[in-house]
Write a structure and sequence with these properties.
Length: about 130
RNA sequence: GGAGUGGACCGGGUGGCCGCCGGCCGAGUCGCGGCCGGUGCGCUUGCGCACCGGCGGCGAAACUCGGCGGGAGGAAAGUCCGGGCACCUUCGGACACGGUGGUGGGUAACGCCCACCGGCCGCAAGGCCAGGGAAAGUGCAACAGAAAGUAAACCGCCUCGCUCGGCUCGCCGGGCAAGGCAAGGGUGAAACGGUGAGGUAAGAGCUCACCAGCAGGCCGGGUGACCGGUCUGGCUAGGCAAACCCCACCGGGUGCAAGGCCAAGCAGGAAGCCACGGCCGCGCCGGAGACCAACGUCUCCGGCGGCGAGCCUACGGAACGUCCGAGCCGUCGCAAGACUUCCGGGUGGGCCGCUCGAGGGGCCGAGCAAUCGACCCCCUAGAGAAAUGGCCGCCACCCGCCGUGGCGCGCAAGCGCGCCACGGCGGGCACAGAACCCGGCUUACAAGUCCACUCCGAUC
RNA sequence: UGGGGAAUGGUGUAACGGUAGCACGACUGGCUCUGGACCAGUUAGUCUAGGUUCAAAUCCUAGUUCCCCAG
């Protein structure tokens, strides 16, 4: 294992992992649509609301409440969650996801990424089964 | 060397890979039009239209790619003050309400800052103070205490009278009643100056001296708060204004989600005192006309205001705590509407505002200082479900443990303790994230740097 | 982001600047064969830190927490 490979341990960071604005939920109506679907799933780390996306790729929305901490702590959570989404984007189904941290403990990037991928996969099955567009 | 006081600064550095936001430049995509060539059709056959290919040009809303350079703080925080800016109503005034509170200065302004004055604390360097008025008015002071404020008297002290007892016959002691007193005791957070002398039946600023404190006058210093001196007065005027209040000064309201432009979309409805005004109906009076033999009837016009729970609009509009005045806009014509409030409907997209500003740095000058002025240089975040990052190294810095070496001390001669240097391992590295922009205040903060000063101890 | 309000025993609430009450609860005892009800008693509080005042839950300043409104 080279030093270079060890540096990029969380996931292989090749190109194609950018996160431009089109991969994010940016409107009040987008969030309301996902919440109105009322399909959510959670583990101890995250809770995710999901709905089939209008686009052929997944989109991310974040909701980090003041209960989690001050502005610095909440910014840290959002950055980690964006990073997790960015790195794992190729492994995610084409859903609109609203991700809410559970607030217990202080998870790191690897935990967030693993939880995000696993929950999104299970969420995809639920969304297919529900038939909601 | 130790203890301390005041102030200024800093808020890790560096690298690899992968990302985010906005700016500029280029290319592609796209759009517009031009030229050349080809094919087809029409034909007024040196023309027009359509399609295909090629080459320049112009455009930039969006998207993709590439390049260049930029991207959190000293508090960005709390939102406690003050401004800029924007809209509301053009101006002035009164009242109400709120704020500030020694003096002078600084400033766009401030509740901020500087200097000085006064009071309190500290041996000192220094620190703290909402620090105007209680001899304008109203009010408050639980409990205790006689009394909580132009007075009053529980114990007490004193005089006179009556009375009882004793007796060395001059007084002594007790009780009751009337009166005088405020020194002593006692209560309280606070009780109408302190010491001494005179004075008195006992006492008392009752009188006097000194001291403290007060008021007024004068002199001197200071821009001023105030300070120093002196004379006179009356002997006491208590506390609380972060109680009402008085005085002086300041303050219009709402806030960039202000506000402006564009696009898209929808559906309107209800209510609004009194008086004055207009209309209508009824009634009365007058006039004119028509019909009638006449009584009278009908029509029109004018007036009255008697009647009407009839209709219309309101003299209206213009951010506002209330009110007044001036000015402005509109105006009543047939009606509706224009205004306000409430209910309902639509949208919640884009652009601007949006970062060059009381801006930062250097140097010189004025000033005790805060600060101000001149010159030179610099441009430094502008997001919008909200960027300024993620992972991994290296080097600083701090802490702990281990090892090696040196020095000092102790020693039961195995060693132990302390300091310093080097190496290894592990851990830590604060408070905290721009949201229109500034000036302050307040609060949070790891480690570290520098300057000035005070006190104590030792040595020279 | 901007604006407004509140905080008193475990809970809900009172208190002109002068001893912090009340109700429910909890605990102990009594009554009862036992429980409930009832009776008696106990427990425990002014969000925090400064300041004004003789004296502060109350007045002032700063902080903490919670709630509401606009969009």
């Amino acid at each position: 294992m080279t030093t270079q490979a060890r540096a990029n341990r969380p996931i292989d960071s090749m190109t194609g992992h950018g996160l431009p604005a089109r991969y994010r939920l940016r409107r009040q109506t987008d969030f309301e649509r996902v919440y109105a679907g009322r399909i959510s799933i959670g583990d101890g780390v995250l809770r995710i609301y999901g709905l089939k996306s209008e686009c052929p790729h997944p989109r991310l929305g974040l909701s980090v409440s003041r209960r989690v901490g001050g502005a610095v702590v909440r910014n840290r959570y959002k950055r980690l969650l964006r990073e997790a989404f960015r790195l794992a984007r190729q492994n995610l189904p084409a859903l609109d996801l609203v991700v809410i941290p559970a607030g217990r403990g202080r998870p790191d990037l690897a935990q967030f990424q693993e939880s995000l991928v696993r929950l999104a996969a299970r969420l995809a099955e639920r969304v297919e089964g529900s038939g909601i567009e």
